[in-house]
Amino acid sequence: MGEYQLCGLHSRCMGMGVKNPVYGSPAWLKVRAFVLRRDGHWCQIRLPGCRGEANSVDHVVELEDGGAPYDAGNLQAACRPCNSAKGNYRRQARGRGMRQW
Ligand SMILES: [Zn+2]
Q: What distance in angstroms lies between residue 97's CA and the mean position of ligand 1's atoms?
């Protein structure tokens, strides 16, 4: 803990989706706001270390795995620690033989 280097306002610079044009597009900002309101700004992932209050939105099926970028059904509110932990977990899982590219 405490080793994350977040670049200020740019929560999308947390390691995933950095190169993805989805984040930052008007459609994304719109569905992101919708999902946060739908989930009551409350984290839906609930990993250990969860902060509870969500300030970001997570793709249930990651874009890299073919998830729909702007489908609210593929999105859930997430706090920063959970979103980050999930991303790390997924990267590890992918490194363990789930390679599809
Ligand atoms: Zn959380």
A: 27
